[in-house]
């Protein structure tokens, strides 16, 4: 899943956490571990005997509060924080640059009825090639297709984050059959913000990358005629 959907080749060693009465996790960030964090719940949420335990993530509007501020509108907590209930077998994946935490658990001291989760990070973003083309052949052809894209990215505003795209190469003709945007954590680089830009920076970067891959030049045909899927994470720092 990490390779195919996020463009990450590995996961960090998993941690398991148990929350009983009084346990919480204060708001924090931990982006240095990897571009995506995950929480996999083993909690019997439907039959819980406690309150709290939700994963909390600050919303984008909270982190950019003054941009859309209105003195005529009152806001409540749900406008500032996204809460995710840890239902059993739920996998939650999020950008660890966003401040996040766990609401305090109250009312249960029995470990068997605790909030229990496995959590960690998807790491090592790198291209993933699956199909008929040899990895070296596919990589060489891909790099040639991307050179014009890198030049075009220099002409638009900067963004920071990871944008992951998958292209499918026709095994017989070598043409790009499809391009799919899989995941996106891009935000405008605050050091490069220009209020006069007519196009949103993230939209512009996404457009340039997508168009470059969707219209990429012809790849070599696969020896056996099998299609090839190439998942590429683009890292903007």
Automatic annotation (TrEMBL):
Source organism superkingdom: Eukaryota
Prolyl 4-hydroxylase alpha subunit Fe(2+) 2OG dioxygenase domain residues: 15-122
Pfam families (UniProt xref): 2OG-FeII_Oxy_3 (PF13640)
Gene3D superfamilies: q2cbj1_9rhob like domain
Name assigned to this protein: Prolyl 4-hydroxylase alpha subunit Fe(2+) 2OG dioxygenase domain-containing protein
Species assigned in the record: Heterosigma akashiwo (Chromophytic alga)
């Amino acid at each position: 899943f990490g390779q195919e959907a996020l463009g990450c080749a590995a996961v960090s060693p998993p941690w398991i956490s148990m929350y009983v009465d009084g346990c919480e996790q204060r708001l924090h960030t931990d982006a240095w571990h990897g571009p995506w964090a995950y929480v996999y719940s083993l909690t019997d949420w439907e039959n819980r005997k406690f309150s709290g335990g939700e994963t909390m993530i600050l919303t984008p509007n909270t982190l950019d509060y003054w941009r859309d501020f209105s003195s005529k509108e009152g806001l409540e907590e749900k406008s500032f924080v996204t809460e995710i209930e840890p239902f059993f077998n739920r996998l939650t994946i999020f950008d660890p640059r966003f401040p996040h935490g766990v609401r305090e658990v109250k009312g249960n001291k029995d470990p068997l009825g605790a909030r229990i989760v496995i959590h960690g990070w998807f790491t090592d973003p790198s291209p993933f090639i699956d199909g008929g083309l040899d990895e070296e052949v596919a990589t060489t052809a891909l790099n040639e297709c991307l050179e014009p894209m890198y030049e075009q990215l220099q002409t638009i505003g900067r963004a920071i984050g990871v944008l992951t795209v998958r292209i499918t190469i026709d095994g017989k003709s070598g043409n790009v059959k499809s391009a799919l945007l899989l995941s996106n954590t891009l935000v405008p680089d605050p050091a490069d913000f220009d209020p006069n830009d007519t196009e949103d920076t993230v939209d512009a970067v996404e457009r340039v990358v997508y168009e470059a891959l969707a219209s990429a030049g012809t790849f070599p045909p696969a020896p056996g005629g099998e299609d090839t899927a190439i998942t590429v994470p683009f890292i903007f720092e």
